[in-house]
Design brief:
7-stranded mixed beta sheet, single chain, mainly beta, globular, 4-stranded parallel beta sheet
Length: 147
């Protein structure tokens, strides 16, 4: 699991997560979060995920629980147990959408029980928040075969 947390200040940097293989995550593969007491004070921006394989999540590929944004390019996922993007933002639920935005830079592929992990209807900031999603145990990781 990749976890970035804005607990005592905002994260505003050029952070690139590249080439990881996230295997058999019990819950989310990627979590971007701020602590509840500071959720309206701190943001997470400037994060870019690229060339990543996610094989098995109990819930989502991305759980966003903060204000901010992140971009994704060439992130392939399979055996995803819930909606691909669980976007709660900072839990204020404005009518304009989540306080967290996701940018699709292309090449994102795969999914699981609910369809593509990065479905167009989720972008850029659709609220898809499930605070306690059911966990679906993924199958054991297996060799990755490109079509």
């Amino acid at each position: 699991m990749t976890d970035l947390a804005a607990r005592d200040r905002s994260i505003d940097a050029d952070i690139r997560v590249r080439g990881d293989h996230l295997l058999d995550s019990t819950y989310n593969a990627i979590m971007l979060v701020s602590d509840w007491p500071v959720k309206d004070l701190y943001t997470i921006i400037g994060v870019r995920f690229s060339d990543i394989r996610v094989d098995g999540t109990g819930t989502s590929v991305l759980s966003a629980r903060a204000t901010g944004s992140a971009s994704f390019e060439n992130v392939d996922a399979r055996n995803v147990g819930a909606v691909g993007i669980n976007n709660c933002g900072s839990f204020n639920f404005p009518a304009t959408g989540s306080e967290f935005s996701v940018t699709d830079l292309g090449g994102n592929d795969g999914g699981g029980t609910t369809g593509p992990w990065m479905a167009s209807w989720e972008l850029p900031n659709t609220i898809t928040c499930d605070d306690r999603p059911s966990v679906v145990a993924p199958p054991a990781p297996s060799p990755w075969v490109q079509p």
